[in-house]
Amino acid sequence: MATGLRARMMEETRAKLIRAARKAFAEKGYAAASMDDLTAEAGLTRGALYHNFGDKKGLLRAVVDEIDAEMAEGARAARDRAKTLWLGLIEEGVSYIEMALEPEIQRIVLLDGPAVLGDPSRWPGQNACLRTTMATIQALIEEGTVRPVDVEAAARLINGAALNAALWVAASDNPPAVLAKAIEAFRLLASGLLREPG
Amino acid sequence: MATGLRARMMEETRAKLIRAARKAFAEKGYAAASMDDLTAEAGLTRGALYHNFGDKKGLLRAVVDEIDAEMAEGARAARDRAKTLWLGLIEEGVSYIEMALEPEIQRIVLLDGPAVLGDPSRWPGQNACLRTTMATIQALIEEGTVRPVDVEAAARLINGAALNAALWVAASDNPPAVLAKAIEAFRLLASGLLREPG
DNA sequence: GGGTTGACATACGCGTCGTATGTCCCGAAT
DNA sequence: ATTCGGGACATACGACGCGTATGTCAACCC
Question: Testing the interface with B: which of A106, A122, A168 to mutate, by most B Cβ within 10 A?
Answer without folding.
Answer: A168
